[in-house]
Amino acid sequence: MSFTTENQPGVCAQPSDATRGFVFNHSMLRVKDPAVALDFYTRVMGMRLLRKLDFPEMSFSLYFLARPEDGAAPDDVGARTSWTFSQRGVLELTHNWGTETQADFKYHDGNAQPQGFGHICFSVPDLAAAVAWFDENQVPYVKRPDQGKMKNVAFIKDPDGYWIEIVQPDLLATLGS
Is the pLDDT reported for residue 140 higher than 90? Predict the structure, then answer.
């Protein structure tokens, strides 16, 4: 299968062969309380915990989540770790030990000033059904699909205040045109 990139200033039309096999594996979010974050991402967003790694000498843990296509994660610890780092679209939650007990502790969500990181995104097969599910689970919204100028796009917040864009791909065919 051949892919033709969109042509915009700064776009390299043909990646170097040296990058063949590169896979975008994961993005990382820092979380205050892993139990709360894991409940949200596994129960509300339907992700699966691929692997947890603890680093006691540095007082933090990593939780790798995704929605793997098949359920064939290896049982062997080393093989499972290697498999986790070969997947696509993984979310890494990083917990710095002790933050869960600090009442006023909060990470910057990237959308407050000064802005930086913006959001992650999930595509869903049925936006209306997803909105009903989020409502049932009392998930806070930044923007509902019918609000603002950009219709058919929702933004919700995770327990740490990070924004999550929710889209139904077939509703976005005319987006940006």
Answer: yes
